[in-house]
Amino acid sequence: MQAQIDFDQTFAKQEGENVRKFCRMMRDRHDILRKYENDWATMALLQRFIKSQRQMKKRKLTKEANLLASETATATATGTDKEDAVNAEDSSMSDDGSEKSDRERTAFESATEYDTWLGFSEGCAMEM
Known about the structure:
By secondary structure, this protein is an all-alpha fold. It has one domain (about 10-125). The chain is about 75% helix and about 0% strand. The protein is built from four helices and no strands. It has helices spanning about 15-30, 40-80, 80-105, 110-125. The longest helix has about 40 residues, at about 40-80. It is elongated, with a radius of gyration of 19 Å. The protein starts with 15 loop residues before the first helix and ends with a helix.
């Protein structure tokens, strides 16, 4: 069974059957989710995860657009090689990952809740 969650769409615009398949799949993998009536907890986590993925994609695209604009302006003004700007972008991307993890961690009340969320998000990534 595979759920087809579309991360380009909001939670409200997801197809109902795909959300139901996803909830069933998560309930089978994580026994703790069975205790929540009508899969409300799974849907809340999925909604949060979709929103997070969409926000990260938007930030990345904005950052890339700003970098490209800056790169173009710099290259025009100084004749800088485009490859140097790409290398600078790659080195800054690794820093973003650790910062994101720290920001995400502060949104959860406990380390256990954060670990549960990581397992949930990894399950989403594996199935998509």
